[in-house]
Design the sequence.
């Protein structure tokens, strides 16, 4: 809330590293639809892997582990679950399924946050309910010493803080006071600092991250597990969170350390997505359809190099061949001479995906 509250007032500047991440993610989002259309029937495997990895990794970060031999049964079976850990892993799977199914139609609201918490906690105990007692985030050392890493918002204030957090999120998007991805990462930081639940805050924060990505059109989390990437960079996750939460209550914290971490995770997710899609053999005619779809996406003239950038995995010769064929049938025209000439679409092109 403290971070988003600042963002609603606007930003004079952002760190150079943040600007680089935003540029890379903007480009990745532009390619997203083309990647998805390249081989839609084979992306089902990526979706299934992401669901499994997300449910396991997000719980494992919080110390919830299950027997590896039982994963298939827990996530896709209907048999009786053995213990609370298995209930929470299946519950997280259910929360993921809800987000993937509803996408941006699932609102960012208090009701949604409580529902995600109820699912992620396996609908047991205080699932779906705010914490009733104050509780700080502490770290216990092997020698028995305990260090308080962060004093969270009191139980009495947590509901109102969550409500203001949602209002600030909406205001940031409407007023465009900050880039949406900056607002997304800022809300993730604020939610963790508020710590509205007795348990399950980390898991809900990651579910919210995925849901907000859908709202902003960054759907890589459907194919690549953001939770797995966070787990693989868990030490950095905790370090940046602690650094950015210092002084949060007074509004004197530095959020950019954690914001850049979240953007780093998203960038890595898109890079992995591109690599994995590149390894999937395209069906007959898919590359032609990919180039045609890219041309269709241009609203103005475009160059050969721009078209190449929009068609990852397609050779220049193939791009030229498709252009020549479309030129022959009068669907595109060349506006100049030489390799730097601009092209323009003359009429609609309807790609037929193989």
Sequence:
């Amino acid at each position: 809330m403290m971070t988003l509250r600042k963002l609603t007032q606007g930003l004079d500047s952002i760190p150079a590293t943040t600007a680089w991440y935003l540029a890379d993610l903007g480009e990745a989002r532009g390619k997203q639809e083309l990647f998805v259309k390249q081989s839609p029937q084979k992306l089902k495997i990526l979706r299934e892997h992401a669901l499994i990895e997300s449910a396991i990794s997000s719980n494992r970060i919080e110390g919830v582990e299950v027997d590896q031999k039982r994963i298939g049964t827990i996530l896709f079976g209907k048999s009786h679950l053995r213990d609370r850990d298995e209930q929470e892993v299946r519950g997280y799977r259910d929360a993921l399924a809800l987000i993937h199914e509803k996408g941006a139609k699932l609102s960012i609201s208090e009701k949604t946050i409580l529902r995600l918490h109820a699912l992620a906690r396996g609908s047991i105990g205080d699932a779906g309910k705010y914490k009733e007692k104050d509780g700080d985030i502490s770290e216990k050392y092997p020698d028995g010493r305990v260090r308080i890493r962060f004093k969270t918002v009191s139980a009495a204030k947590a509901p109102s803080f969550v409500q203001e957090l949602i209002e600030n999120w909406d205001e940031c998007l409407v007023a465009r006071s900050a880039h949406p991805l900056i607002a997304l990462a800022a809300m993730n930081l604020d939610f963790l600092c508020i710590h509205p639940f007795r348990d399950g805050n980390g898991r809900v924060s990651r579910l919210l991250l995925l849901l907000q990505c859908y709202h902003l059109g960054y759907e890589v989390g459907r194919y690549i597990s953001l939770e797995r990437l966070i787990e693989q960079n868990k030490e950095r996750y905790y370090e940046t969170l602690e650094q950015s939460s210092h002084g949060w209550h007074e509004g004197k914290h530095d959020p950019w350390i954690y914001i850049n971490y979240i953007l780093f995770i998203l960038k890595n997710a898109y890079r992995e997505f591109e690599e994995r899609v590149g390894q999937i053999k395209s069906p007959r005619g898919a590359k032609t359809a990919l180039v045609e779809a890219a041309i269709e996406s241009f609203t103005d003239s475009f160059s050969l190099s721009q078209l190449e950038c929009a068609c990852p995995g397609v050779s220049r010769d193939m791009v030229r061949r498709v252009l020549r064929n479309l030129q022959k049938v009068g669907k595109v025209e060349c506006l100049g001479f030489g390799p730097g000439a601009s092209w323009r679409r003359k009429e609609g092109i309807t790609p037929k995906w193989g």
